[in-house]
UniProtKB/TrEMBL annotation:
Residues 1049-1060 have a biased composition (Acidic residues). PANTHER family: GLYCOSYL HYDROLASE FAMILY 63 C-TERMINAL DOMAIN-CONTAINING PROTEIN, MANNOSYL-OLIGOSACCHARIDE GLUCOSIDASE. This is Mannosyl-oligosaccharide glucosidase. Residues 446-553, 722-894 form the Mannosylglycerate hydrolase MGH1-like glycoside hydrolase domain. Its EC number is 3.2.1.106. Pfam families: MGH1-like_GH (PF22422). Gene3D superfamilies: 1.50.10.10. Pathway: Glycan metabolism; N-glycan degradation. It comes from Metschnikowia bicuspidata var. bicuspidata NRRL YB-4993. It is found in: Endoplasmic reticulum membrane.
């Protein structure tokens, strides 16, 4: 009974997640796991030089079979990428089909590799029950050559040449191609596909829509996969393809006739095409092909009209259905065309009416799910930003396959790779065996996992799918990922590079978010990752503190070009680089491990002693940063300190024996020590007598170290808390004076990675006649360091800003409202640290929100994407942002760590003002919470409003291209519907059965208890905008608002510290 009651409290999407977790149904077997670029990856590089960009080019990818995966446009596949369904297009003018996204390579782009297409992830759910992708396809010939040539003319100091610069979208001469996927009501392995293409131009234009079914080539390599049998595709009739795969058995892909280009036009029937997913060796290498029909056959058939290019027997391992909308000039201006198809176990005709209703129900359920994640008084604009952030996060999941032994030695049926290729790239990672669905940074620019990126991805994932977030963190520490020595793999270009140690923090935050939002306390997950991270922590101590002095190296640490030298190479000066950020990261690592140990010790006492170890190790690191070489009783920094007492800032330093040379560059390197902070409640200390006893012993016997590094040993903070921090109050205020100065770190859009001070005062160093320089560069990099496709010398990056905000919030828990700093410096306005954190959050949120003139900062000055009605609602989540203007830079769809904005919208979106408008003056009352109302929303919530007004203001609204948007149906479908309806009497009309509105059900989360949420039922076939709501819903929304408004610091402290 309790199980049934619990089940009834969940939304439809939450039920799917529950069933998947309990293995009742496999809801996640199919999803958006297909790569967007498999070519030019390290995995596919078998060259002697290791030049992946040259060894497997975009042009080669049409002809050459991939070894380690597949790619495609708007792709869906299973969790092993065995059966792939993707979209192909042709406008009648291109020389090739549009089957995948195009971009310039690292050597072709003036800032490295860059995708040169326009596409957007509009929606997705954690189980991929509903997915929506938008691709903007030009009606003119795609400017492949122009994009490469013009990009090559640009210097590193110029903006990149983008596809919008070509003018190809002028006058709206393009198609908005909306690709949707929905899973059926009863079977999560029955996939429904709908592609709708809208002509935005002034003239009719032809379009060919060519959905593909591709079987990943697992049979050509001579591995154990061949023993399982070769999969096969064949036509069973003019509308159906049978998929016979050893993994799945028999499946059927069925295509419905498509409505013609007008109401009067005849239906468009598909032409089924077949070939083999085999390399065209004759074209590439002048050798005989292994198969008569090869990978590029559809290009030959559709574009060049070579009818013999495809298999007349209608069978193979790659198939497509060609829908040609070229009658009467094509799709009329302002009109659209739609195709529908499905993959199922049983096949059968498609009922287009019910087919479309499934899409409507899935989007309603998606609306419900995301409303439950943030049932807050958010503006529709912010809610859309959050929704698209989640969508991008989910779309950038990908099956990642890499087995080092096969890659290094070659496959049985292929020639052995050159010896010592790529100078032995990744030669120390022979144990790697990866075949998992992973969260990637960007499926085109970075189609591989990156260890520290993943840690940040897991924060927004924990809000919507904590099981997946935990899985990602567990995988990185498993023995087939983690090196036997304890190092975590960085990324495929060099697994041995060192990323910041953020995985303990991420594990603890995921644990906390799941407990707070879903009432689940997964101590087994926390304990499992903690034990593996003990090994990783030991690796850091043994490998990156070679002299045992608690000052750490680490290399580039994900910050690419932030230093004056390449920090991953030996110094041209000689000596050892002692890194302020690396040492700060390790202090941060210590405190997060301490946090986890104390959490575990509440139910598993053995961890109490381990907590003591991390407490003491933190103090030794903290002492070494400022007081290395200090004598007993000294309270001032030594000349070997990483803290500069004159500048009041932390710097890297080069250590030569007994001499240390500081490198006075004001960068994130000097802010990262703020991360290392932790508050301890007195009740918690009393709960662990062994830990408290060891703490007291250390304070008594290592008094000099303790007094220098434990804030306020005698004067406790708010709630009698104890503060562990690398910085005392004076240093904290001094650092914040620079960080909150708009002439230094504080931008209109967040915290810069390098102080603007260096714009007029570049740091210069002469080494043996060679000049090294660091200057403020708010945009792209002016050097080729680390590929030249990222820049940490001025731009704004979300991950480091996210941790800075959390640091300010932790300091606020200790210092409370009494500690105020000027923010911004020179404004005359003094804010407490929680208010400073909120201000930084708002500035970063402003990157994505239109200002009063309708411009999103992330779009730069591009009027097309800012103002055009068919562009302005889509939000790009760039890799990083210009330190002055907020213009998006780097990867276009860095939907992983940039998606952490979704968490901030949840926490503080209700108080976010419109960009470029003055901040409201703080009210003369104490804040109730780290996250609380301060703006017009507060007064709005205090007023009694009519239900309809409240709903209109805050209820979720349909985003771009609503799932219930009416679409034309084929003549065949309308005929079937007419025949069916004639079988009913007057009292037997087809029922429009009632469905729960958006599938809303009850769920315990941060803003509402389970019993607080229950919504009205409505007609499932009405349009989204006409759904009715009852007073019960309004009461629950008000209840959620009230809970949110009345949160306190004590409630919120649970996110950042271990509570008693």
């Amino acid at each position: 009974m309790l199980e049934q009651e619990f089940y009834g409290l969940l939304t439809a999407e939450e039920r799917r997640l529950h069933e998947n977790k309990k293995r009742i149904k496999y809801h996640k077997r199919w999803g958006s796991y297909l790569s967007e670029r498999q070519w030019a990856t390290v995995r596919e590089d078998y060259s002697a030089s290791g030049s992946a960009w040259d060894d497997f080019s975009f042009d080669d990818s049409r002809y050459r079979t991939y070894r380690w995966g597949e790619d495609g446009l708007a792709g869906t596949c299973d969790t092993r990428q065995l059966v792939c369904l993707l979209m192909g297009l042709w406008n009648g003018k291109d020389d090739i089909l549009k089957e995948k996204l195009f971009g310039v390579t690292n050597s072709q782009g003036n800032h490295g590799e860059d995708v040169k297409e326009l596409y957007y992830y509009l929606d997705n759910t954690p189980t991929h029950s509903y997915m929506k992708f938008l691709y903007k396809y030009p009606q003119s010939k795609f400017p492949y050559k122009q994009l490469v040539e013009e990009s090559g003319k640009k210097s590193r100091l110029e903006h990149e040449y983008e596809i919008t610069d070509t003018g190809i979208f002028d006058e709206g001469r393009y198609f908005d191609v909306v690709h949707e996927v929905a899973k059926s009501d009863d079977d999560p392995e029955e996939l429904l596909f709908r592609i709708t293409a809208y002509n935005r131009g002034p003239d009719a234009a032809p379009l060919h829509i060519i959905p593909h079914v591709v079987l990943r080539n697992t049979w050509a390599w001579g591995t154990e996969e061949l023993q399982k049998g070769k999969p096969h595709l064949r036509a069973t009739d003019n509308f159906s393809i049978e998929v016979d795969h050893p993994k799945f058995g028999i499946r059927h892909v069925v295509f419905a006739p498509a409505p013609g280009v007008s109401e009067e036009a005849l239906d468009i029937e598909p032409q089924l095409l077949f070939t083999e997913n085999e390399t065209n060796a004759k074209l590439l290498y002048g050798q005989e092909n292994a198969a008569e029909y090869v990978k590029d056959a559809f290009h030959d058939y559709v574009v060049d009209g070579k009818k013999k290019a495809v298999n007349p027997k209608k069978e193979g391992t790659k198939a497509a259905a060609l829908f040609s909308f070229d009658q009467d000039g094509g799709v009329a201006p302002g009109d659209y065309v739609t195709i529908r198809y499905k993959m199922s176990k049983t096949g059968g005709e498609i009922d287009e009416f019910e087919f479309d209703n499934v899409f409507g129900r899935r989007q309603d359920e998606a609306d419900a799910f995301y409303w439950k994640v943030s049932p807050l008084p958010l503006s529709d604009e912010l809610r859309q930003v959050q929704r698209q952030a989640f969508a991008g996060l989910l779309w950038t999941k990908q099956f990642y396959h890499f087995v080092h032994s096969y890659w290094l030695s070659g496959d049985p049926n292929t020639p052995a790779p050159p010896e010592n290729r790529a100078n032995g790239r990744n030669k120390d990672w022979k144990h790697l065996f990866i075949d998992d669905v992973l969260s990637l940074p960007d499926k085109w620019e970075y189609p591989f996992f990156a260890a520290w990126d993943t840690a940040f991805h897991c924060i927004p994932f924990a809000m919507i799918d904590p099981e997946f977030a935990k899985n990602q963190l567990e995988l990185l520490t498993r023995e087939w990922y983690m090196h036997p020595n304890g190092q975590l793999p960085a990324y495929e270009w060099n697994f041995s590079d060192v990323n910041p140690p953020v995985h303990a923090w991420s594990s603890y935050r995921v644990f906390k978010i799941e407990r707070k939002m879903y009432g689940v306390e997964d101590l087994d997950f926390l304990e499992g990752t903690f034990q593996k991270l003990l090994i990783n922590f030991t690796w850091w101590v043994n490998r990156k503190d070679s002299e045992g002095n608690n000052l750490f190296e680490g290399g580039f640490l994900g910050l690419d070009n932030i230093g004056v030298f390449n920090r991953s190479e030996p110094l041209p000066t000689g000596g050892t680089l002692q890194q302020s950020d690396s040492t700060g990261w390790m202090a941060f690592y210590c405190l997060q491990m301490l946090n986890i140990a104390l959490e575990l010790a509440k139910t598993r006492p053995v961890y109490e002693n381990i907590a003591s170890k991390f407490f003491e190790h933190f103090l030794l690191i903290a002492d070494a940063m400022s007081y290395r070489g200090a004598k007993k009783g000294d309270q001032t920094p030594t000349d070997q300190s990483l803290w500069d007492e004159n500048d009041k800032f932390y710097y890297d330093a080069i250590h030569f024996g007994n001499h240390t040379q500081s490198l006075p560059i004001r960068s994130l390197v000097g802010l990262i020590p703020l991360y290392a902070s932790l508050t301890l409640e007195p009740e918690l200390l009393n709960k662990f007598p062994s830990f408290k006893k060891r703490l007291d012993w250390f304070i008594e016997n290592r008094r000099s170290v303790a007094e220098r590094n434990i804030a306020s040993m005698t004067n406790r903070g708010v709630g009698e808390r104890l503060l562990l921090s690398l910085v005392n109050k004076d240093r904290l205020v001094a650092i914040l004076e620079r960080m909150l100065d708009e002439d230094e770190f504080l931008s209109d859009y967040g915290i810069r990675s390098l102080s603007k001070y260096h714009e007029k005062h570049p740091f210069e160093l002469d080494v043996n006649g060679q000049k090294y320089e660091v200057k403020y560069l708010p945009g792209e990099s002016d050097s080729g360091m680390f590929g030249g496709n990222s820049n940490w010398r001025g731009p704004i990056w979300f991950p480091v800003n996210f941790l800075l905000v959390e640091s300010l919030q932790r300091f606020y828990l200790y210092y409370g409202s009494d500690l105020k700093v000027e923010c911004p410096k020179g404004s005359g306005e003094y804010l407490n640290l929680a208010q400073c954190a909120e201000e930084i959050q708002h500035r970063l949120i402003h990157l994505f929100v239109p200002d009063a003139e309708g411009n999103r900062a992330c779009n730069g000055e591009n009027d097309l994407v800012n103002k055009d009605q068919y562009f302005k609602d889509y939000v790009p989540f760039y890799e990083y942002f210009d330190g002055d203007t907020g213009r998006g830079l780097g990867a276009l769809h860095q939907c992983g760590w940039t998606a952490v904005v979704a968490k901030w919208i949840h926490d503080n979106g209700t108080t976010c003002r419109t960009p470029k408008t003055p901040k409201s003056a703080p009210k003369p009352v104490r804040r109730n919470s780290i996250h609380s109302f301060e703006t017009e929303n507060e007064s709005a919530l205090s007023q009694e409003e009519e239900d309809n007004q409240l709903l209109q203001k805050y209820a979720p609204k349909a985003g771009p291209f609503p799932g219930r948007l009416t679409r034309r149906r084929s003549g065949k479908s309308l005929l079937n519907l007419t025949i069916q309806s004639l079988d009913f009497g007057d009292d037997e009309n087809i029922k429009t059965g009632e469905e729960p509105i958006a599938g809303f059900r009850d769920l315990k989360n941060v803003t509402a208890e389970m019993h607080d949420l229950e919504l009205a039922r409505t007609d499932s076939r009405r349009s989204t905008d006409s759904r009715g709501h009852d007073s019960n819903l309004m009461d629950q929304i008000r209840s959620a608002f009230k809970k949110y408004k009345n949160r306190t610091d004590e409630d919120e402290a649970d996110e950042f510290e271990t509570r008693h």
